[in-house]
Amino acid sequence: MKKEHTAGVHAHVEMFLAANREFVEQRHYVEYPASKFPAQKTLILSCMDARLSALLLPALGLKNGEVNVIKSAGAVITDPYGSLMRSVLVAIYEFDVEHIFVIGHDDCGMAHLDGYQMVEKMQQRGISKAVIDAVHHHVDLENWLQKIGHSEASIGRTVKLIRDHPLLPRNVKTHGLCLSPETGALRVVENA
Ligand SMILES: [Zn+2]
After folding, report:
1. Centre of ligand 1 from the C-alpha of residue 184, in Å
2. How far is the CA of 22 from the centre of ligand 1 (A)?
3. Mean pLDDT for the stretch of residues 54-67
4. pLDDT surpasses 80 at 36
5. Residue 162: closest CA among 65, 73, 97
């Protein structure tokens, strides 16, 4: 069972390496010239949803190197001193970002996520009750995983967390938008 799993992982890695050799040999990298300083002085925080992986930047008329991008489930930041907010501050102070766009999307899986159901799935996938109990000493697990509610309300909460952050310089503007994963259409939820 374990060996089969390992072989599967290897096949997946080999698939990527084969595509990568082709990419480098064909010099496709010349299509992506960029510096590490985002040309639009912009950071986008969006959702990890697979439908947005190639849709997001062209839907905003953006190319490689023009923006910093952070992805999280639901385009959400909940902890003002977690690694996501640290990334926002790094983008501002190290990469000269002045505009922040929180871009959620319609039909986001995080909007319907049930923390209790997810803990059940963990147990079905072999995580023992003892481990679940031990984790409860560190975090209110079900609540931590819990649904974030409707996309627009959630976008507004994340925009507010960034705007209210004590380390955010005054010239940085934070906006909230919502994108359709079907058409790429954007609408403004929170204007700076
Ligand atoms: Zn999503």
Report:
1. 13
2. 31
3. 97
4. yes
5. 97
State which amino acid sits at residue 108: C
Give the pLDDT score at 151: 84
What mean pLDDT is predicted for residues 140-161? 89
Sheet strand arrangement including 99-105: 67-72, 42-47, 99-105, 173-179, 186-190
The candidate with the shortest Cα–Cα distance to 157, out of 121, 189, 114, 124, is 189
C-alpha 48 to ligand 1 mean position (Å): 6
133: its two tokens = 């109990």
For domain 34-112+147-190, give the CATH number: 3.40.1050.10
Cα–Cα distance measured from residue 140 to residue 71, given in angstroms and rounded to the nearest whole number: 23
Distance 105 CA to ligand 1 centre (A): 6
CA of residue 152 to ligand 1 center, whole Å: 12
138 φ/ψ angles, rounded to the nearest 5 degrees: -95, -35
Q: How confident is the model at residue 191 (pLDDT cuts 50, 70, 90)?
A: confident
Distance from Cα 179 to the centre of ligand 1, integer Å: 10
pTM of the predicted model as reported, rounded to 2 decimal places:
0.90
| Torsion (CA) 108, 124, 138, 90 in degrees, nearest 10 | -40
Phi, psi (rounded to 5 degrees) for 40: -90, 5
How many angstroms does the Cα of residue 49 sit away from the middle of ligand 1?
5
